[in-house]
Amino acid sequence: MAKTSSSTREYRDLFRRLELALDASRMGVWEHNLARDELLWDARMHILYHTGNDKRRVSADAWQKAVHPDDVNRANADFDRAITSRGRYDSHFRIILPDGNIRHLRSRGHYYVNDEGEPSVIGAEWDVTEDVALHHAVQDQKAQLEERAQELAESYAEIEHAAQHDYLTGLPNRNFFDARLRSLQNSDQYRSLAVLHLDLERFKEINDSHGHTAGDHVLRVASSRIIAAVSASAVAARTGGDEFVILLTDFSSTAELEAIGKRLQKALSEPVAFGNAVLRFGVSIGIGFTLEGRPDANLLTESDVALYQAKRLGRNRIAFFDPALKDQLSARRTLALELQDALEQGQIIPHYQVQIDARTGGIAGLEALVRWNHPSRGLLAPFEFLPVAQDAGLANAIDAAVLDRVLEDRSHWRAEGLDVPRIAVNVSATRLHDAELLAELERRHTDFHGIAFELVETIFLDESSDEILDRIHRLRSLGIEIELDDFGSGHASLLGLVKIRPDRLKIDRNLVKDVVVSVEQRRILRSIIQIAQALKVGVIAEGIETKQHAEALRRFGCDIFQGYHFGRPEPFEAVTRRLSSEQFSQEKSARRR
Ligand code: C2E
Ligand code: MG
Ligand code: MG
Fold first, then answer.
1. pLDDT over threshold 60, residue 376
2. Are 70 and 90 members of one domain?
3. Residue 262 confidence (pLDDT)
4. Does ligand 1 lie within 6 Å of residue 486's CB atom?
5. Which numbered atom of ligand 1 lies nearest the CA of 565?
6. Are residues 135 and 169 in the same domain?
7. Domain-ending residue, one of 286, 302, 321
């Protein structure tokens, strides 16, 4: 008996400890008698379900009703599986508490047959809402991390793409192009390879006069036209401001390359509409190629050299690489480097050519013509270095240096009492397009009366010249006169003439050359002079080499002559002598009268 009571005590102890443990764990215990479909809950089950009572017997239906409708089927299925397998029950479901709150419960149990031989499932249940929330938070974080990783991968791909492509046109860039060219040259897949180097004409002018948005638009249009004009296997890349290169593999002759070049020129010469403006540009193309696979050929450099050649020939040309060109190119590079020093060391100077009044025969003015007093090569004429200066972006600096010297020389002459009615300086198109020009001139605080700017006619080819016209107007308000140089050599002479109404136009010497022998030339000259007179624009004739030239032009009504017949361009000292002897003879004849 004592034994029984001690084991009862032990059993009670054990039971109490179990109760304590369950209390601490907040686990509810349930038992489902399947034979009687009877559900027994302990007090903690009632707490979990907020039933507000502690009845031991609960209807199976009550439990079903508490389970979240979305989870009830799954929970039942888990339960049925435990019964059919006579094994473990493991489920997880949400319940809806009487106050509407939702909790997550974990429920575990197992199948057994009780002492009465009735099949039952006994199990425990506990609240895992916090765990679930935590799990969700972790899941969210994980998803965020994955998203971030994805973003990183994407931006990495974008960076990769950006490193290989031009942001503006989306075309491959130089890096990409170089890599592709290298790999094609190293594989012997293609025997014929060509690089076409394209440089847009008049792009800078468009950019300067219509703004960068217009320039960007032109570049995008140009790139899509380039792509449309070449085969799908071609690789087109943008390699610089207005420079494009194209790598071609499927051609069999230079004639075919030339045809592709022409096709590109045709496509790119179509005008582009931008707002109310119509933008026109063109393209020069240099081609480097091989028909028999020269893996060591530097096709990119060759096409670049050929492009130089194309541009030297004039606008909108196509040129093929010729090995002799390469030496010329390196000579040009050296010259461009030297030119920078030349500017600093005052080697860039004006020579002066006299202009003669057609009626009096006296000096009407001087034209300043740039020379490079090169330390080893002697005096260089403009054609030997101006194109290089243009390419090297030094054209404006040269014009500015010449103007500086002209103003200095004029002060010397004035100091010696020598009178020069007018000095004309040449102004390159880029300088006129430079928005800084006026500010720069104003900084000099000089009297610009008696200074004329000779502008090249091609400046006015664009329909876009409002800004330029405004700039010209402001130049005039500084006292600067405007002359239109090389008139009759371009295409839109009359347009420019009417638009800017220069003080004078200078008839191109090619028109003067044959005036004595050609009837047609005379007719053209006569009508130019008549138009100028109608517009009250003065006329200077360039290239007067003979007495006959002068006589013909005097008859037509030309105001001023310039040419070898009256004098070649001369350095400062020689002009000074000429000016003083002229002044001397004038004074002498004045005294005689
Ligand atoms: P341009 O302004 O039309 O200058 C006239 C050119 O014709 C000068 O050549 C002059 O020496 C030459 N010339 C003058 N009279 C005769 C003649 O009777 N017969 C022949 N056959 N030629 C004659 P130059 O000095 O070589 O200048 C060439 C061009 O270089 C100039 O043509 C002008 O466009 C440009 N240039 C000269 N100086 C400057 C400058 O300071 N800045 C800019 N931007 N361009 C300049
Ligand atoms: Mg000139
Ligand atoms: Mg001229």
1. yes
2. yes
3. 96
4. yes
5. 18
6. no
7. 321
**SS3 letters across 69-130:** HHHHHHHHHHHHHHHHHCCEEEEEEEEECCCCCEEEEEEEEEEEECCCCCEEEEEEEEECHH
Ligand nearest to the CA of 543: 1
Residue 258 identity (one-letter amino acid): E
Examine the domain organization and report whether 288 and 337 are in the same domain: no
Is the CB–ligand 1 distance for residue 370 below 6 Å? Answer: yes
Mean pLDDT over 399-413 rounds to 97
DSSP state of 512: H
Please give the Cα distance from 547 to 591 (Å, whole number).
29
Question: Which region, left, alpha or beta, applies to residue 588 given φ > 0 means left and ψ of -120 to 50 means alpha?
Answer: alpha
Ligand nearest to the CA of 540: 3
In which band, very low, low, confident or very high, does the pLDDT at 465 lie, cut at 50, 70 and 90? low
Tokens of 267: 């496509």
Are both 137 and 179 inside the same structural domain? Answer: no
Same domain? For 528 and 398 the reply is: yes
Section 245-274 average pLDDT: 94
Question: Could you read off the pLDDT of 534-574 as tens digits, one per residue?
Answer: 889 999 999 999 999 999 999 999 999 999 999 999 999 99
For residue 5, is it within any domain? no
Ligand 3 midpoint to CA 576 (Å):
23
Task: Please tell me whether residues 405 and 273 are part of one structural domain.
Answer: no
Residues 481 and 564 in one domain: yes
Ligand 2 centroid–CA 206 distance in Å is 24
| Closest Cα to atom 15 of ligand 1 | 563
Say which ligand is closest to the CA of 512.
Answer: 1
Domain membership of residue 523 as a residue range: 330-587
